[in-house]
Automatic annotation (TrEMBL):
This is Regulator of protease activity HflC (Stomatin/prohibitin superfamily). Residues 24-189 form the Band domain. GO terms for cellular component: membrane. It is a single-pass membrane protein. It is found in: Membrane. Coiled coil: none annotated. GO terms for molecular function: peptidase activity. GO terms for biological process: proteolysis. Pfam families: Band_7. InterPro entries: Band_7, Band_7/SPFH_dom_sf, Prohibitin.
């Protein structure tokens, strides 16, 4: 077996080293992500330049790149807080967020890759405890769900606005009360609903009765006015007019003038 020339060994070593250097220097940033460059001999984390965007990048082999997800992300959080009367309330929430792209270097330098656990989640928990403590269990269970969601979002946003985190929304998916309190609230709500339905029926019946009274009063007034206007003279004139019309009919008849009560004619005859 022939021995390799002496010059071949250093060449092979040089090729191996070159491959290692190229491997260390090549960085690919995937879709929806960005890279923070760390210069080992150049001041550490780069904060005054844009983060490395998607695609292929070549860096010095002694430097490092830390990859961050920069798309909107969602985390689910279960939290406990005390209501205004000291009862334990459990919340299930979804948190929508993403790091501020233009401040990614500062986020890495000051908060690290653990920014969600160190900054965001403690802020959400603190805001939830503060907001829930303003309301009773009944308010949290029924009418104030949207209100507490908005307030938790606003308070959390105030906490993280200067922490290089973009908070997009917080959704309260469920509010869990102690079983005995939940049952009591549901019974009370049912009773209130039944009371409202009863009051509605009473109001409806009252309006119907009022309508009947008004209609009856109208008819009575009309009859009274009509009776007051029908004098004996008017009735006699009406009778004479009717007699004249009957006398003009072709049917056989006998008309006795002045024989009826009040001097009205009496009509005798058959068809």
């Amino acid at each position: 077996m022939e021995r390799l020339p002496k010059v071949a060994i250093p060449a092979i070593i040089a090729v191996i080293v070159l491959i290692i250097i190229l491997a260390k220097s090549a960085v690919t940033v995937d879709s929806g992500k960005a890279g923070v460059l760390y210069k080992t001999f150049g001041g550490g984390v780069v904060t005054d330049e844009p983060a490395l965007g998607e695609g292929f990048h070549v860096i010095a082999p002694w430097n490092k790149v830390y990859i961050y997800e920069v798309r909107q992300q969602e985390i689910f959080e279960k939290m406990s807080a005390l209501s205004s009367n000291g009862l334990d309330i459990k919340l299930d929430a979804s948190i929508w967020f993403q790091p501020e792209y233009e401040n990614l270097g500062k986020l890495h330098q000051e908060k690290s890759e653990m920014y969600v656990e160190r900054i965001l989640l403690p802020a959400v928990r603190s805001a939830a405890r503060s907001v829930v403590g303003r309301y009773t269990p009944e308010q949290l269970y029924s009418s104030k769900r949207d209100a507490i969601q908005a307030e938790i979002f606003e308070e959390t946003k105030n906490y993280v606005d200067d922490q290089y985190i973009q908070l997009n929304d917080i959704l309260v998916r469920d509010v869990t009360l102690p079983p005995t309190i939940k049952d009591a609230i549901e019974r009370k709500l049912k009773q209130e609903q039944e009371s409202l339905e009863y009051e509605f029926r009473l109001v409806t019946a009252s309006k119907e009765a009022e309508k009947v009274i008004i209609e009856a009063q109208g008819k009575a007034d009309a009859n009274r006015i009509l009776s007051a206007s029908l004098t004996d003279k008017i009735l006699q004139d009406k009778g004479i007019e009717a007699t004249v019309k009957l006398s003009e009919s072709s049917n056989s008849k006998v008309i006795v003038i002045g024989s009826g009560e009040s001097g009205l004619p009496i009509i005798l005859g058959n068809q």
